[in-house]
Specification:
Elements lengths: L23 H16 L18 H14 L2 E4 L3 E7 L2 E6 L2 E4 L6 E7 L4 E10 L5 E12 L2 H6 L4 H17 L4 H5 L3 H19 L3 E12 L5 H70 L1 H17 L7 E2 L11 H10 L4 H4 L15 E2 L9
Parallel strand pairs: 9-10
Antiparallel strand pairs: 1-4, 2-3, 2-5, 6-7, 7-8
């Protein structure tokens, strides 16, 4: 049953005297007593202007407010930071790491600059190359705030200035090179030139920023020309591959040709030396022979004849047959010769030895043929 219905409970907001929370006036009086004890005020009767009075010590309040205001001038500077203090907007000093204090606002203000933190800005833009091709470049520039004073005072928005300078520098470098160079082996050279150009412009503007690295995170051609560019890249790769194969073939053929030419030159020199030596030897021998002939013509003529016969017959195979006079048919028993050679363990051709032998060949074997053994009737 609800409290507001007939016969219901009493109104819960009705409080008996002495029960529940104290009223608002009592709370105000309690707070006044506490503040009076803090600020040195005494308790007294009621003031003429209200239910309770409080005599405040304005000097103590002023001192407290001054102390709070002075405490706002303390600040902490880390080891990687520098504090730039200005007085009414004019530069005063640059503070190092540690607990520092300056005249509180609005007299002096401070700005903390981290001089060791590596920050980075990223930018992506489309530009033209030297051969009038479009290319999309994504660049990342890492930097530090090396000079906090210049960083705070020389440029209004140094990081935005860095972004604009980076885009201007990369456009200038890309515009000086062709697309093949940008997409191929020229990326390292482009980043180095861009870094030097950016740093030079930042130093000219005195931004206090030092560039750490410049990276080309992406170098692509627009989607509209991507198929044609892929064909061009494939053609360039084929060209490089064919060039390498040709260079490999060149490295293989040229040394062989040079070696063969050197060998032929050496053979020609050896042949020349040999022929000249032989000719000189023959000349000397002929001179000696002429001298001997002039001294003893008959003996020299006979010796020359025997040496010539020895030279001619010494290189031919022959058999000397001893036949009796009056025989007109010569029978050569080849079967006997073969049997004899087989029995002696020698080749039959060895039996047909040169008849006129050189001194080192030994005596010539002479075969005697008996006409009675030829089966003549």
């Amino acid at each position: 049953m609800a409290w507001n219905e007939p016969g219901g409970n009493k109104n819960p907001w009705d409080r008996r005297p002495g029960q529940g929370q104290p009223d608002l006036a009592e709370l105000v009086r309690n707070w006044q007593r506490k503040l009076a004890s803090v600020f040195g005020g005494g308790q007294g009767g009621r003031a003429s202007g209200g239910a309770g009075g409080l005599r405040l010590n304005w000097g103590s309040i002023g001192l407290l407010l001054l102390a709070v205001w002075a405490a706002t001038g303390f600040y902490q500077v880390d080891s990687a930071e520098r504090g730039v203090v200005t007085r009414f907007g004019r530069y005063v000093e640059t503070t190092q790491d540690g607990l520092r204090w300056h005249l509180p606002w609005p007299i002096e203000t401070r700005q903390i600059v981290n001089v060791a933190k590596n920050d980075s800005i990223d930018d992506k833009t489309r530009m033209l190359t030297a051969d009038e091709n479009l290319v999309d470049i994504s660049i990342a520039v890492q930097f530090i705030r090396a000079d906090p004073l210049k960083f705070v005072f020389q440029v209004r928005e140094p990081e935005e200035t860095l972004r604009d300078v980076s885009e201007s520098a990369i456009r200038e470098i890309i515009g000086q090179n062709k697309l093949d160079f940008v997409l191929g082996a020229g990326r390292q050279e482009i980043t180095e030139k861009t870094e030097v150009l950016i740093q030079g412009m930042l130093d000219f503007y005195q931004t206090g920023i030092q560039i750490i690295t410049v990276n080309l995170t992406a170098v692509n051609v627009p989607e509209q020309v991507a198929p044609s560019q892929k064909d061009a890249i494939k053609a360039r790769e084929d060209r490089d591959r064919f060039s390498q194969e040709a260079q490999t073939y060149l490295n293989d053929v040229v040394p062989k040709a040079q070696g063969e030419a050197s060998r032929q030159r050496l053979d020609a020199q050896a042949y020349r030396t040999r022929v000249v030596a032989e000719a000189e030897g023959e000349t000397a021998r002929f001179g000696q022979l002429l001298t001997a002939y002039e001294r003893a013509p008959n003996v020299t003529r006979e010796r020359l004849y025997l040496e010539t016969i020895e030279s001619v017959l010494g290189r031919s195979r022959k058999v000397l047959l001893d036949t009796r006079p009056g025989s007109s048919v010569i029978y050569l028993p080849l079967d006997k010769l073969l049997e004899k050679g087989t029995a002696n363990g020698t080749d039959a051709a060895a039996l047909l030895a040169p008849a006129v032998a050189r001194p080192q060949d030994g005596p010539v074997e002479t075969i005697t043929v008996d006409p009675r053994n030829r089966g003549e009737r």
